[in-house]
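User: Could you walk me through two proteins back to back? I'd like the raw sequence and the structure tokens for each, with a short line separating them so I can tell where one ends and the next begins.

Assistant: Of course. Protein one, sequence then structure:
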Amino acid sequence: MTPVKMLLLVAILVHVGSSFPLERKPVGAGAGPAEGPDVGPAGREKVQFASWDDVNVLAHGLLQLGHGLKDHVDKTKGQMRDIAAKLKSFNGTVAELGKLTRRLGEEGDALRERAKQMARREERVLNASADLQALAQHVRAEGDGVRDRVGSLERKMDILLRGASATDDSNHSTSDVNTLQWMLETQSKRIDDLVERIRQQQDKLDKQNMRLQALQTEVKQRRLKSVVMRRAEEVSMDEPVEHALPPNELASDCHELFLRGEKQSGLYTIQPQNAKPFDVFCEITSERGWTVIQKREDGSLDFNKLWSDYKNGFGSLRGEFWLGLEKMVSISKQAPHALQIELSDWRGETQTLSYTFQLDGEENSYALHLQPTTPNGHLESALMTGAQGLPFSTADRDHDLKEDSNCALQLSGGWWFGSCGHSNLNGRYQSGPTLAQRHHRKQVVFWKTWHGRYYPLKTTTMKIAPVVKS
């Protein structure tokens, strides 16, 4: 019963009690009705109040009012207990937030200290790079001086040769010519040594520049990490997940989602065994659920990244992206997997390639093990790994099989390079089939066994799924 209803009931009872009529009756047996007031022995008027039934009605109303008030008090006590419990929970949450804030502050301080250390390392690398550049300039200047001296010796030798033909002292001339030839050979050897030293110094300078670029990238990532941690509970990867499941019900991959009855392709959160949850794009077909690990479609994303980017992944799951080598390992190590590569050209033609898929961890440079599953396997031969596997390479981690070259530096992007010339689906995207300049033609997205070495592909998709036993 609400307080308004109880007040209304009290008002009604008061009104009823106040409106009871008073009865006056004569005293004495057989007395008729009297017109005057009933007078008692002492001459006072005798008054009688409401009947017993009216009193019962009033008492019953008051009893109901008491029960209503009791119910209201009990309900109020329950609400107070609920409020107290919520306040206690809120106080606990505030305490947890305080602990989390302190922890984030400590981690922020540690990150700032790490950033300072990285800045100092960056400064040392810059100084070393400047020293190397100065040394390279000195070597170049020395080489120019040697070339000038060789030119002067060649001119002197021409003069002596012409003088030797006009003199009779042939033995003396021959001795001078031999001496000059020996000097020229010595100078040529010195020039070759200097050229080799220049090449070595240039290689060191290139490596230092790559290290500097990697350090700069790491510094930026460290500086952004604290902000990312604060937003970790609000933002997942780049976009909200379309199909979210409770944490205790996360599937280990897209194929498990397919086995659970999911039929719609899109963004999902998965959690492979012994790994943290992360978002993926699942392509659900009538036969299985594929986890997409790479997608190129319009050139909106630059794939010329370094090792750490290819390890952790980059891009948008709704557009172009690279899932990340660590995530690929965590998915594929759960069971034997298949790899499917889909290619398209600028004429609207498509090709699909199929392999068995195995990927080693970072300790083996994410070595790839593939085996074609199609009958002839001609198209698949552009990416053959052999029994030992093919390690992954980037500009700052050269693991390709060509000893005298850095394929990732020459061709752009990161890939499982063999001898640089068979495939690269992470190269520079070119909008249209027209061949670019000679230097850029090597760096396009290509698959040599389909349209050749310099044809830029329009779209590529790489996806993996557990092997389905027939």
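----
Protein two, same layout:
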Amino acid sequence: MSAALSRCLCRVLSRQTAPSSVLLGEHHHAVQSPWFAPVMTLKTSAPLRAEPKKKKKADPRREQLARERLKKKLKRLEKVPPEFIPIEDFITPAKCLDETRERSAPKLSFEESERRAMMLKEWCRYKKDQHMAEMEAIELALEAQREALEELKLESEELYQAALKPDPLLFPFTHEGPAHTPPIAQFEAPEGKYTDITKVYTQ
């Protein structure tokens, strides 16, 4: 229908503009009628029979019920205790819990077992003698120190009090704070190559 309408308008306007084109003679191609361009560009849009969608009216009861459902879900989630992220370092691998993996003790001969028993007894006697010698040396040192302090107290009370003070030079120890080197300008630290196998847990 739009095509037929445009053809009719072109015929009517072409008849009205014919005398002007004859009067112009050879220059009728250079001068164009002001009615010609608008007619050719005349277009009709397609009919639109749709109407905008109507917004549904919000039901306050439904909104209230949805809020109550959400509150109930939140309460249920609060009752459930949170799941802790497992620490893999504290979990014994399943292959180590296999009871069939048992290392059998080597079978020793009677002579070898007797030799090891005698060696263990000898070692116990040696450590006992060593401990007794150390304790005797400590007791002798403490007894000599006590006698020396008693004699010093009889000689001079000031020297006795000075001898009781701790000696800071007995264990010489000097410590300086951590020394940090100044930062290097425009230094880019190299990124090491590694494979990230960290497990991500979502609660």
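DSSP finds six helices and no strands in the chain.

Let me know if you want the two compared in more detail.
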